[in-house]
Amino acid sequence: MRILRSTGRTVALAAAVGALALAAPVTASASASAQSAPAAAVEPAAEQQAQAGKEVQVWASNVRLHVEPLVNSPSPTTFGPGKLIDFCQRQGDFVSEPGQGSSTWWSYVELPGGSDGLWISNVYLVGGEKIEGVPDC
Length: 137
Fold this sequence. Notes:
Elements: H1 2-23, H2 26-41, H3 45-52, E1 54-58, E2 63-65, E3 77-79, E4 82-97, E5 101-110, E6 118-121
Antiparallel strand pairs: 1-4, 2-3, 4-5, 5-6
């Protein structure tokens, strides 16, 4: 019987809260939700681009992709030539490719069709040491 009494109080409290919510002015809640919706939908341009990524071209064959922007970090796969989706870039280990240049910049990429993110040295990407239009991580 005690459980029923407790449940009855809970139901009565919920009904009272619901009645208060219905009695609240509609204009106040409508304007509050209208003001909060655009703020949630607006994102900084760099964040939108980082989410969308930028297509980049790998010019070399069988380039190792790493779990960190470090030459000696694990390399679960290779790629190239072809296109990857580049989400952001940051500095890591120095990489030099004879006749092509050198860089300390690495890009966080995804394989076409989706994959876990991996790192590739920017030396192997068309666009130079630091890829224009790709935000820093």
